[in-house]
Amino acid sequence: MAGLTSSTIGRKYAMALSAIFLLIFLVMHLSVNLLSVFGEDAYNNASQFMGYNPLIQFVMQPILMFAVVFHFVMGFVLEIKNQKARPIKYESNNPSNNSTWMSRNMIISGAVILAFIFLHLYDFWLHEMNYKYVDGLPIEETRFWGDLHAKFADIWRVVLYVISFVLLGLHLGHGFQSSFQSIGARHPKYTPVIMAFGKWYSILIPVGFIFIAIFHFVTQS
């Protein structure tokens, strides 16, 4: 790992691999959460399996945590090194003509998304850790849907989630194709397909999460 992150190219490659892993995770996470829209039992069953399966809890979850931290740390490191490599901005430079606003400000959207992740962990992961390992409460198969539903009773939380997922969509819009480009997946035949798929991915994933938050808000009894 040290050799992979010792050069700028290596860091970009490692960051791209962590990004692809997180892209896959987002699909899985959305798939499970969408079950809460279609029925309490389906979501409760899936959540119980995810929450008490040893392989997921003690192998996959630490890997996910590492991937999140690694991705953001690499992002900040690359941004700092890019800034140091270009200490002087030429007056003639007009970046808006050569790149999108998001591609120039991935660090900003990334920082906001990181703050949202902390909120999300506080809302759900920390609650689970307290329930299972601090309070030591017994397995209650029907609690998961109710916990999720209750979190979206407050409009301010829904608004924060919506804003965060909009920024996530913008972040994904550039990050998806950039990740594949960084690992060398560039070809006249396949690159347009990757770009098109990335565009739809960056729209559908955030829209799916936003739909879930709004659904649980408007269906509060």
From TrEMBL:
List, alphabetically, the GO terms of the cellular component aspect. Answer: membrane
Which NCBIfam families does the record associate with it?
A: sdhC_b558_fam
Q: Which domain of life is it from?
A: Bacteria
The record lists the membrane-crossing segments as 12-38, 58-80, 101-122, 155-176, 197-218
Q: What lineage, starting at the top, does this entry show?
A: Bacteria, Pseudomonadati, Bacteroidota, Flavobacteriia, Flavobacteriales
The identity of this protein, by name, is Succinate dehydrogenase / fumarate reductase cytochrome b subunit
Q: Which UniProt keywords apply?
A: Membrane, Transmembrane, Transmembrane helix
Q: Which organism is it from?
A: Chryseobacterium soldanellicola
| Listed InterPro entries | Cytochrome_b-558, SQR/QFR_C/D
The keyword Membrane is annotated on this UniProt entry? yes
